[in-house]
């Protein structure tokens, strides 16, 4: 039986860093599901068509990490047919042996409701904006506006809104170093592993 770790949370909460660290620690595969929506947004044209035609090589585009790609992703992510087209790929990935870590917004609620471990990673929006500004070399105040806009869109959409699963453990990384957050996440997984 593969072991699945579902990690959800808002942008720049630290979920990607934790997902990569957990995958390395436990020898699991890792999927950053935000990249799927970023790639669909970046492909242009009809987003439903783009989601249905998406190939793993599309995830390698170098422009997917930008703030614009994040905004475009959150717009296409509100379209139910886009989400439906990406569901099977994510479920298949989650079945990788001996285990997989998926991070996104709806992993614990929709994609992998039976995941062995569910983490909801969060941090205050000002701290997330500072982290993202440092990472992208961008203006902090502008990052804060963009994060708030994206969080609001992701949280209120009708289909698969961003929210913690009822059985998720919430990890607030606002006042944690990366190493402390990783140690805490490893401890949470080891409790059930
Ligand atoms: O995680 P990341 O910032 O790369 O995600 C980009 C956007 O993709 C999010 O703002 C969200 O709208 C969408 N997304 C989603 N469901 C996921 C992962 C990402 O709706 N599982």
UniProtKB/TrEMBL annotation:
GO biological process, one term: pyrimidine nucleotide metabolic process
Cited InterPro entries: Cytidylate_kin, Cytidylate_kinase_dom, P-loop_NTPase
Entry-linked Gene3D superfamilies: P-loop containing nucleotide triphosphate hydrolases
HAMAP family: Cytidyl_kinase_type1
Keyword ATP-binding among record annotations: yes
Protein species of origin: Paracoccus sulfuroxidans
One GO CC term on file: cytoplasm
Main location: cytoplasm
Lineage: Bacteria, Pseudomonadati, Pseudomonadota, Alphaproteobacteria, Rhodobacterales
One Pfam family it belongs to: Cytidylate_kin
Top-level EC class as recorded in UniProt: transferase
The protein's Enzyme Commission number: 2.7.4.25
Residues the record lists as binding ATP: 9-17
Family: Belongs to the cytidylate kinase family. Type 1 subfamily.
Ranges of residues in domain Cytidylate kinase: 5-40, 61-190
Record-given protein name: Cytidylate kinase
Transmembrane segments: none
GO MF annotations in UniProt: ATP binding; CMP kinase activity; dCMP kinase activity
Keyword terms, alphabetized: ATP-binding, Cytoplasm, Kinase, Nucleotide-binding, Transferase
Cell compartment(s), UniProt: Cytoplasm
Reaction(s) the record says it catalyses: CMP + ATP = CDP + ADP; dCMP + ATP = dCDP + ADP
Keyword Kinase: yes
